[in-house]
Write a structure and sequence with these properties.
15 helices, single chain, transferase activity, alpha/beta, globular, binds glutamine, Amidase_dom
Amino acid sequence: AYLDRIAAQDGTIGAYLHVDADAALAAAGAVDAARARGEELGPLAGVPLALKDVVVTEGVPTTSGSKILAGWRPPYDATLAARLKAAGTVLLGKTNMDEFAMGSSTENSAYQVTRNPWDTDRIPGGSSGGSSAAVAAGLAPWAIGTDTGGSIRQPAAVTGLVGHKPTYGSVSRYGLIAFSSSLDQAGPMTRTVLDAALLHEAIAGHDPLDSTSIDSPVPVLAEAARRGAGGDLSGLKVGVVTELGGEGHADGYDPGVLARFAETVALLESLGAEVRQVSCPAFDLALPAYYLIAPSEASSNLARFDGVRYGVRVGDDGGRDLDEVMALTREQGFGPEVKRRIILGTYALSSGYYEAYYGQAQKVRTLITRDFTTAWDDVDVLVSPTSPTVAWSIGARVDDPVAMYAADLCTLPASLAGVPAISVPCGLSDGLPVGFQVMAPALADDRCYRVAAALE
Ligand code: GLN
């Protein structure tokens, strides 16, 4: 049924970069045959799934939205892809994304435009916009995205989905094409909170192949979602972050987004939560800090795309030396946003400017983490809008990188501090979905699910 919907609708939506119907039907058939033989099946046996194209999949084309990886078929599975296979899921295909996950609208994909199913003249968010559009259009029941500065939560918010960025280190990064290694995390994008919890549980847990993987038990999340669905939040202490759309900080926020946010905070109170305002002054600096740290790490991570080890090689037809081939490959293989980040990151890391830019940004990162730590003395969760605006029109921000970056205002603090954060739908503004963000202390992802389920 999903393959039929993809065939009928993905020409308009543009969610998928790669679909292999035969492979999906064969995988589904294998599950059916195992069931008929009475074999023990994985917990998600037969459930279809879409993966963001940043996830390395054995034998299946993987591009990270970049021309430089066109035609590459990886020789191994990312840990999360292997875990989902073992759980019995059936891969429908790989979804479109901003090139190397750099962007908030999926317009930086080297391949195609992806449209928001709510209004096909609008963006589906980014960088996991293929995943959000696929799930919102019913072209997959759920999908995996990755979030470095908001790329699960913001596309989920603007397409009316649930999206969760796990605690940094709790989902393996092995086999995710690296953007900014100290920030990247994979997580679920789904239609319900319980689905998100189930998908998250299937990918979580320690992985010796990822040096930053936390060695702690797989979190119990579905139970938290079921408990939260009862709607009772009595005793829960909720902090509303002033700096994220509150008094004196509402510039750039849609009035409709702030109205839905205020109504949802009132709903939390009516469910028994104790709500107070919390000031996190360093959050005002999250945007500039992130846009130094993420490009710095990216400039280093993307050095591996040299025309030798992976994918495309340009100009290797005799008469050119290695440096020239590398330069030509990178010139033609990377898109403009990727080049902008590499140049910015290389500059920020250069010896004369390191302290002034990268060093300062790291200090701000520490201040942001401290704001969270101080907040946890008083509250169990912090809340904010997920995105300052609803989905904008395709093309509206492509010539203005700073306007594009502003979409990340609310999602960046949790990324920089490595704490978990969920986006759950909280109504419509101008007929378009609005997301509500719930942030929790590291390894307390279950609180995000509990609160989100109560609001669903
Ligand atoms: N929009 C942010 C960026 O462009 C975040 C992207 C992401 O989370 N991958 O860097």
